[in-house]
Amino acid sequence: MAVALLSGCVIGNGRICGPQTPMIYCDKAAYERLANPPSLMESWQHPSNTPEARQLDWVSCGGTEKGSYAVLPGTTGAETAARSGAKFDQMQRCMLGKQYQYTGTCQGEIPSRFPACQRAEGSVPQR
User: What distance in Å separates the CA atoms of residue 87 and residue 93, rounded to the nearest whole number?
Assistant: First the structure.
């Protein structure tokens, strides 16, 4: 005689998930987004350009071929952060100048200050 014991556990994403298991491990789509996040370059869309053209434009704006950008080292951590932030802002302005639209998030203290998240009247688009 088989007896089933219900304990609040479920099987999700190939794992046994109990009440103490973070749901990110049980939700396959959420886990994939966490384990394999999109590159920064993938947050830029152009209505008439191919992904290959986007990559060329990204690199010409200062990005890397893999969709990120190189951090500019400074003599202190604060200087490194400031220099890298300025480079990222310049890259965003470059992509905007090539008529790309930013599709990433503008919510949060840091993203809300991105050049790509600013409108002409100074308000922040909700994404």
Answer: 10
